[in-house]
Structures are given as structure tokens and as C-alpha cells.
Amino acid sequence: MTQRITHSQRLNLAESGSISDLSRLVHTTNSEIIGKMLANPNMTSGLVVQLIRKKSINETHIITVSSNKKWMKDYRIKLELILYPVTPRNITIKLLQDMMIRDLAVIAKKVTLHPILRETAVNYLKLRLENIRLGEKITLAKTGPPGFLPVLMAEKDSRIFKAALTNFRLAEQELLQFLAPSTCSSNKLEMVMSDEKWGRNPQVMRLLAHHNNLGYASRRRVFEKITLPLLMDLTDSPVLNPNHQNLASFVAKQRVQSFSKSDLIQLAGSPSKKLLYFIGITMTDPQVALVWMKNRHVDKNLMEIARVKNSSSKIRNLIGNAIDNPNAQKGEMHDQQ
Asked: What helix, strand, coil percent values describe the chain, rounded to 5?
């Protein structure tokens, strides 16, 4: 049966014991014993790493470790000191300059660390960007910290941008800010539009719909995804050029034409002038026309436009009769049914 050693014996082993003795003590949480271990010339950098990882050391011990030139040649100790929340910030900030790219990314994402430390790690990543290989950039784009993502997304290689879109840390606002400038390429806008996640995001779709750099085919797909009220607003939006406005009108007409008769009858009573305009120029059913013309928001001007633009001669005649004989509108419409 193994005899338990006393606290006094542990102190003696910590102060002058062999590497083997120190290995037996590495699980201790006693501050005095740890202090003796760190003063023992037999203490190895590997055991120091274990002590830090077990989070048993205090700030005094950390200062002792960081002052030991031999131990501080060990990269593992530098990294563990940075990741240890108790380590004084002046020490961690200084150690960041020695970190590898992958570890800077880990530090930048670790929420238990001080924001200033994480921000400094991101700044080091930015400074080293041109020395990072393509494969590493793609990996960082997939897993990297939020503050570094816009920098990676600005890279020319589209594979990096595509990888960044899959990063769960990429926030909606961060993506919107990146896409908003007129300098954002059509290729990147189209990649966002085609992305499984972001291609369904209402705010992202709204931004893409207003962006003049989006290609024609992709713009049409965006117009087909966004809400009808937004699409109708785009038909005369000063942000869009005439070609894009015309495309918005074309898609809006198609979408209104796709509604069922019952839906159109309900929508024909809407107070929205733009919706009434598109119903007026596309409707083909007399019942829809009756509800539409009885709507108090449909004025003579809107009727005149619908009479000119509607492709159905039957509906054009009904509208013409209503314009010419406003008092007979209701009776004539019932006759047409």
C-alpha cells in the first residue's frame, strides 16, 4: 500500500526533486508548491505547459514563466500563456508577434480573451495577409474571425470569397457593408445571390436588387425572389438605370399574371396604386376588372393607362365603356359576365 506524502515532503520534492518527481506534482493546485516547482532547475518546458493548461498557476507564476528565457523559447508556452485569461495583457500583446497564422486565427476567435487582444490578433493577420498562401486563405475564410473576414473577402480569388460565405461567423451586417459599395464586383454579387444561405436572406436580396453592378440574368433571378411590393417600387427607383427599371416592370407583370383569379379579385380591392396599375395592365377576367374599376383608388388616369396597355381587347372595351359612361359602369359589367 502506497504511503501518502505530506505537504512538507511535497514542498521538498518541488524544490529539489527530479523530473520524475516534478511530473508527479504537476497536477497540484497548491500555489506554494507550484512556486517551488518553477524555481527548480530540473523543471522542463513540457511540465510548464502542463501547469498552464491545467489553469492552476496565478499571475505571479506567469510572470516567473515569462521571465525565463529558456522556457520562452518554447512556442507552446507562448501560445498557452496567450490563451490563459489570467496572463497580464502586456505579456500577451508582446507574445502575439511570434504566433503562427493558424494560432492568430484561434486567438482572434476566442471569446474568453480580452477584446483588445483579439483585435490585435486580427491586425497581425491583416499585416501578414500577403504572405499567406492561397490554401491558408481559403481555410481562414471558412473558419476565421469576423474582423478578418472582410479583408479576405476583398481578395481577387473568388474561391476565398466563396469560402467566406460559408463561415458561420459572417454576420448579415458585415456582408451588407462589404457588398454595398459600387466597387463590389458583379462576380461576387452573383455568388452571394446563388448562395444557399445568403440567397434567401431578405436584406441581402434587397441590397442586390438595388445594386447596379449585378448582371442581367442574376438581377432577374433576384427580382423573382424579392417581395412584390419591393419589386414594384424598383420599377421607378432612381437608384436603377432605365433597363433595370424595365426589367423590374416585366417581372412584376409576370408575377401579377401568375396569380389565381380569386387572388386577383381580392388584390383588385387594394389601396396600393402600384399594385392596381399592374393588375390593370395585365388582367384578362371581367370579374377582376369589375372589382378593379369599382375600387375608389382607381381614378380616370389609371383607367386610361390600363385601356392603352392591357393586351385584352375585351378588357380594353370594358374599361373604355366605364370611362365614357361612368354611371353605367356597374350595369354594363354585369351584362358582360
From this structure: 70, 0, 30
Instruction: Kindly report the pTM of this predicted structure.
Output: 0.75
Contacts of 60 (CB under 8 A, 6+ apart): 35
How many CB atoms within 10 Å of residue 90? 9
Name which of 58, 40, 38 is nearest 48 in CA terms.
38
Among candidates 160, 180, 182, which has minimal Cα distance to 172? 180
Terminal CA-CA length for the chain: 105
What the block records as the C-alpha cell of 161 is 470569397
CB-based contacts of 140, cutoff 8 Å, min separation 6? 101, 105, 125, 132, 148, 152
CA–CA gap between residue 289 and residue 281 (Å, rounded): 10
Could you report the per-residue pLDDT of 36-83, keeping only the tens digit for each? Answer: 999 999 999 999 999 999 888 999 999 999 999 999 999 999 999 999
User: What's the residue count for the chain?
Assistant: 337
pLDDT at 331 over 50: no
Q: What is the pLDDT of residues 203-212, one digit of tens each?
A: 999 999 999 8
* Tens-digit pLDDT profile for residues 85-99: 899 999 999 999 999
How far apart are the C-alpha atoms of 24 and 90, rounded to whole Å?
A: 32
Q: Look at the block and give the residue holding cell 427607383.
A: 237
